[in-house]
UniProtKB/TrEMBL annotation, chain A:
<dbReference type="InterPro" id="IPR002491">
    <property type="entry name" value="ABC_transptr_periplasmic_BD"/>
</dbReference>
<dbReference type="Pfam" id="PF01497">
    <property type="entry name" value="Peripla_BP_2"/>
</dbReference>
<protein>
    <submittedName>
        <fullName>Iron complex transport system substrate-binding protein</fullName>
    </submittedName>
</protein>
<keyword id="KW-0732">Signal</keyword>
<dbReference type="GO" id="GO:0071281">
    <property type="term" value="P:cellular response to iron ion"/>
</dbReference>
<dbReference type="InterPro" id="IPR050902">
    <property type="entry name" value="ABC_Transporter_SBP"/>
</dbReference>
<feature type="signal peptide">
    <location>
        <begin position="1"/>
        <end position="22"/>
    </location>
</feature>
From TrEMBL, chain B:
<dbReference type="InterPro" id="IPR027417">
    <property type="entry name" value="P-loop_NTPase"/>
</dbReference>
<dbReference type="GO" id="GO:0016887">
    <property type="term" value="F:ATP hydrolysis activity"/>
</dbReference>
<protein>
    <submittedName>
        <fullName>Iron complex transport system ATP-binding protein</fullName>
    </submittedName>
</protein>
<keyword id="KW-0813">Transport</keyword>
<dbReference type="InterPro" id="IPR003593">
    <property type="entry name" value="AAA+_ATPase"/>
</dbReference>
<dbReference type="GO" id="GO:0005524">
    <property type="term" value="F:ATP binding"/>
</dbReference>
<dbReference type="Pfam" id="PF00005">
    <property type="entry name" value="ABC_tran"/>
</dbReference>
From TrEMBL, chain C:
<dbReference type="InterPro" id="IPR000522">
    <property type="entry name" value="ABC_transptr_permease_BtuC"/>
</dbReference>
<keyword id="KW-0472">Membrane</keyword>
<comment type="similarity">
    <text>Belongs to the binding-protein-dependent transport system permease family. FecCD subfamily.</text>
</comment>
<protein>
    <submittedName>
        <fullName>Iron complex transport system permease protein</fullName>
    </submittedName>
</protein>
<feature type="transmembrane region" description="Helical">
    <location>
        <begin position="196"/>
        <end position="215"/>
    </location>
</feature>
<feature type="transmembrane region" description="Helical">
    <location>
        <begin position="280"/>
        <end position="302"/>
    </location>
</feature>
<feature type="transmembrane region" description="Helical">
    <location>
        <begin position="308"/>
        <end position="327"/>
    </location>
</feature>
Amino acid sequence: MRSHYPLIALCALSLWLSSAQAARLVSVNLCVDQMLLRFAARDDIASVTYFANNPAMSPYAADAQGLHRNHGLVEEIIPLAPDVVLAGAYGARQATALLSQLGYRVERVPLPEKLADIDAHLLRMAELLGEPAALQAYRQTWLEHKKARETANAQVPDSARPRALMLGPNHIAPGAGTLEHELLVLAGFRNWAADQPGFATVNLEQLVQQPPDVLIVDVAADHQFSLAHEVLQHPALNAAIGPQRVARLPSNLAVCPAPNINTLLSALVAIQARIADLATIGGVSR
Amino acid sequence: MTNTTPLSLHCEALHYRVGARALLKNVGFSAGAGQFIGLIGPNGAGKSTLLKTLAGLWAPSAGKVLLNQQSLPEWPPRARAKTLALLAQQEAPAWSLSVRALVALGRLPHTGSLAVALAREGNLIDLALTAADVAHLAERTVDTLSGGELRRVQCARLFATVADIWLADEPIAALDPLHQLHIMQLLKTKAETGLVIAALHDLTLAARFCDRILLMNDGELIADGTPTQVLTEDNLARVYRIRAQVQHSADGVSIVAQAPLTQSDLPTTTHAHNANLSGQ
Amino acid sequence: MHDLAKEITLKYLGLSVVLVLLLAISLTLGAVDVSVWAALSDAWAGDVSASRSIVFDVRLPRALLAVIVGAGLGMSGAAMQGLLRNPLAEPGVLGVSAGAALGAVITLYFGFTAWGWLVLPAAAMVGSFVALFAIYALAGRSQSVLVLILAGVALNSLFGALVAVALNFADNMFALQEIIFWLMGSLANRSMDHVMIALPTCVLGMALIYSRHAYLDALTLGDDTANSLGFSAGRERAMLLAGIALAVGGGVAVAGSIGFVGLIVPHLLRPWAQHQPGKLLLLSALGGALLVLGADLLVRHLDVARELKLGVVTALLGAPFFIYLLITGKRRLI
């Protein structure tokens, strides 16, 4: 599993550098940014994306202060003399193709699309970053947390689990097959939107007629006007779902699940516990 | 109608400038009930400008216009419109109204609403239609009319105002001879009790029907008097730059344009023949 | 004369009956099956229920807004055409709606709405007034279709771009989708709060426009003749422009800009009004309400999951119509 190959290659590429010189890592993907900011040595980070310091998109925004930020443009990246350019599986195609052509080392890191992908993703990042201990510990926590939840869930019949709806901006909700769906199930919920595959728009009328036990929304809705969140002010929605049944999840956690997976799961489990209490105390049975 | 003071239209020292160009220069005259005034002059002489200024549409750069001895800007627009009506040179309808509805627009100063005019003043509108000989077109839409028919409909629109003073800018330009005579006769009849000022290009018809002629050239009032006094061969030569034969008969005056004049043919003295420029 | 009056009344009656029918349909049909009678009896009894909430809090405000916004756009279109003496004038096409959208965007995204509910419609009205004034200054004197359309294209792009710029500066993560809302319009998930913003604004605007119906009739024969018929152009125009700005601004503030309504409706109904611009106003208001309500019904049922923007439907209907008018127009282009 553990391989020092990339690290050796990296050293070979920078033979003229002293061995004490840090690796120069450039990220052109927000989720890779978060992994770097969390687990790489700060001196190794040559550049992150210009989203990285946006607190609405990343919980590590403060850590990105002072770092070089790029817009995924080749002409910005070349002067940084990167040892490795890290990209997602799909994004920044033109830039990475050109960089490869010019002889730079480009590593594509597929982002997890299922919970099962997370482990592989963490392993791959560990490999690229030189097996930092913090990342190994993080992965261990995740595996244990996951196992514990699976055991706990096995005790509860499906019908006894509260129904949750994760309502994103523009009333789009994750349905069957999404990572968020799996996460909801792992946290002990049934997904209200499980009938629909992928991400789909939730109809307000359906929501009012069959409200979920809990509506999970992101907190970005609070401080900035956007039509994307305006539906949350709708009187019909507020009548159907009382304020104690609305839970808030920091929006920057869900943008990239892998670097935040333990926090996300804990937050969802906490919401689940609160709603389960509400059901037993308030006697709202659905 | 609404005013007890006798009908009168008076202007003095009227100037109208657009930028550096003077369209009216020191124009002044007075007119009252019982006059049919022909306003003549070559293209660009300032006839339309004068009519629009008299109608209160354009404020003069200097000078004043008095309607029934009251300054024109002091008139409330609607009261003014009941007393003084204008037939503009260009009145191309933007929409395909029926002929009846277009004529009914002339009643707007009185009714304030086209629907009310159509519903309650049918008789008056019929009279105006008949007067302009367009009653048979009443239910047609205006976009189906010929140019001459449309002009007659517009005349009917003017008639429907029943204002005391009519200002008409080339009312007969597009008409056939029969209807030219017809409309001129109507204007003359109107002038028996009211005041009509019409810009005209047909000098013979002007001479025959009008009892007073205002001759304009280059923004100035050149001559003001009876047709015989104003329509002289010298005046025509200087203002229109034509050699014309003016024949006087029992019917009135008839003018036949014979040849254009070159610059050298023009009379040298400028005001020698303008003994009639005297106001009233 | 009496036959004519009867005919007009019949037309108003016919349009109103269809409107009421469509209203009933939009309350009955939706994403979920709900009995309107159950909703009514729940409301009567004062019971809180999902059906009551769906019918009265979700469907009713949406349908009411379609009627209000549509009526405002229809009448504004008729008024703009009368004022500019040009059948191609329309608030959406000429950038007046985009101007209103800019006003709304600035107040909403920069926190000015905290000053009171009036700020949003007022800003939208100011935006549409600026655009209207620009159109009038650029193309009001000219009878040329080309000048009008070029001025409209320029203003529409300008205000559209300014909406995008404003949304970018607002640091909104969903700027792209929200630009689409403001420039394409939608009635999805609107509530009575929105009705309360649009209703007074649009009604006041329409009342102002309608009070000038005689001037629009007189303008058939041009500025000079209209003035000679006892109208003071400055006052009449100011009131008309203010009325249009209110009617368009009130609608755009809550529903975004919905194009072509003011173009299609007056054109279709003009023969019914015997081509009289004044008579066309109320008919166009009714027709606009019908068109937007109908288009919204279509939007709701074409695809429940991924709702099409309302303005897309009206543009699909309206743009070919616009081209048809341009081709068949009897007026000179230049």
